Structures are given as C-alpha cells and as structure tokens.
Amino acid sequence: MKITEIKSCFVGPAISPEQFIAEHFFLFLAKGTMNGYDGNKHYILSPGESCLVRKNRLARYNKIKSNNEFEKVIIFFDEPFLKNFQQKHTITLKKHTSKDAFIRIKKDKLINSFLLSLEPYYNGSGIISTTFSDLKREELLLILLALQPELSDVLFDYGVPGRVDLEAFMQKNYKFNVNMKRFAFLTGRSLSAFKRDFKTIFDETPNRWLVKRRLQEARFLIEEKGQKVTDIYQDLGFEDLSHFSFAFKKEFGSTATELSESGNLPQ
C-alpha cells in the first residue's frame, strides 16, 4: 500500500495565507516534512502522518520538500457540515480538553484505506469533485471519531473564544501575522473594545506596538543569538524582507544587515 502515491487534494476552501485557522481541517502528509507552531508548542509532521488542525487558533506551518516534492491531503470540516453530521449521527462528548492547535492522529489502516479510496474521485487539478466531497468527508469523520472519540469535544464545540488577559495574549502571540479583527476575536472582544483596552495597557496603538515588539525581538535574535536576517523576518510576522528592512532601519537607525555584520547598534 503506497500512500506516497496520494496526490495533493483539498476538500473545502484553500488554506488562507493568514495565520488564523478559521475552520477545522484534517491534514495528511504524503511527501516532505511540515513544521507547525501554535504559540505554545512546535510540531513536526513526517510522511505518513496526519493531524487535525483546529479552528479559532493561531498557527504557522512551514513545508520542507523531500527530493523537491511536497504532497498532502487536506480535508476541511466547516461548521455547517459538522452541524449536519451531528444531526445524522449520535455524538457523545468525552469532556476532553486540549489546548493544542495541531492534534496528532493515530496511524491506522482505516486512515490508509480511506486515503487510497480518494484517488478515483480526483478531478484533473488534483481536487476531489464537489459531488462526492461531503460523502468522503463524512466517511473520514466517522473514522476519526472511531479512532479517537475525544475529538468530538474539539469538532463539535461551536463556541467562540472568551475574554482573556490581553497583555499576556499579545506578548505570546505578537509574531503571528493576522489583522486586528482576528486578534480582537481571539481575545473575546469587539474591535473597538480591543483597541481601547490595548491603548490602556500598552499606551500604544496595536499596529505600532506589534511592529516595535517584532523589531525588538529581531534585534535580540541577531545581536544575541547570531541569527541571519533572512531566517527570522517571516517568523516574526513580516510579509517580506524589504518591509522588515525598512522598518528595522527606521526604528534603529541602521539596517539589520549592518547589525549582523558589526554585532552592535547605536543605543
């Protein structure tokens, strides 16, 4: 059974480049390696492994090709689908709690058989036909709940994030590149309340604080840890190197490259 023959596949919308998980999705990795980070833990997914990535979480994932190849299967479980599934099947909650954004799925022949069964349903672009997508999603969800019943507590929780400590949340998650509406939602606030509370706590606007906080961390990583500019700017939430370089020079008066070469910057 050659799972590596599985092609790339999406059932549901494409993954947003924004580092916010809007809907639960199942991810199986056929070729390559994936590194994930959710603000608390780092995760590594190797070929033949799968996980459930849960919604309403901040997460970042980087792919590493193997022999210039990276193949995956991604199947979304959006809320309307889950509610419809719940009407058709008896769901028992297990009172299981987990803070992980990436929940590893046990290896099992049922998963392997399911993945191989997808191949006849691919269309020419490597995507499963919408005619069969809900049917295959339902089959996968039944398998997952049979293998790990505790997933019901994650998948069928339709609640929204509650109000949290804003300062602690932002200090932990400032590296994620998401907009203010996402940050507000994840801290249990309206956008206006988020901005008001932010100003009270940090005496700064959210956008300006995020840039300064990311640049402070960049300076620390370059100056104290000897890391390369090209290795850190994306992990710190900057979309491109030119934006990072411009912001760094504006903040500190010298470029990050000059700091890297000299080992110090003016105070």
Automatic annotation (TrEMBL):
The keyword Coiled coil does not apply. Keywords: DNA-binding, Transcription, Transcription regulation. InterPro entries: AraC_XylS_family_regulators (IPR050204), ExsA-like_N (IPR054015), Homeodomain-like_sf (IPR009057), HTH_AraC (IPR018060). Coiled coil: none annotated. One of its GO terms (molecular function) is DNA-binding transcription factor activity. SMART domains: HTH_ARAC (SM00342). Residues 164-262 form the HTH araC/xylS-type domain. The keyword Transcription applies. It comes from the Bacteria. This is Helix-turn-helix transcriptional regulator.
